[in-house]
Amino acid sequence: MSGSTSSQPPSAASEGRLSYAVFQLARAHRGHAAAMLRAMNLHPGQELLLMQLFDRDGQTQAELLEQVGLDHSTVSKSLRRMQEAGLLTREPAPHDRRVMVVRLTDAGRALREPIADMWRTLERISVRELTPEQVDVFTGCARVIETSIREHGRPTAAE
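User: That's the sequence. What structure does it adopt?
Assistant: Structure tokens below.
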């Protein structure tokens, strides 16, 4: 597969140019990030869970699920793999044995700087041909688009 993409979307997406551009961007960004994560023996999404635990270790599985916005089965599978890899522990909460508390191990904590470095490198690669002002505008637009998409799926008060 070629590393370049056509600037024109396929005809079926001609009235969705922005959406197609977002798809292409997300695919390229995720692919590059995945390669960087593989070098750390991580799968995409696991770094998001680790970053949440770097900020606040000892969260419940439900709290992590809410923070990263992934579905329950994806988070459960990721946490199981990470536990098997020795990056974290999961144990029942003292107040409720049904609630699982997730804590980093020393090996998990040791990934903080490599993950931060990965994000710095990915950012540097991503913005190398943009001005700081363009980065600010793009980031703002991306947040507006994300909010619009998220709110579209929410029921309104009249429903």
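The chain is about 60% helix and 10% strand.
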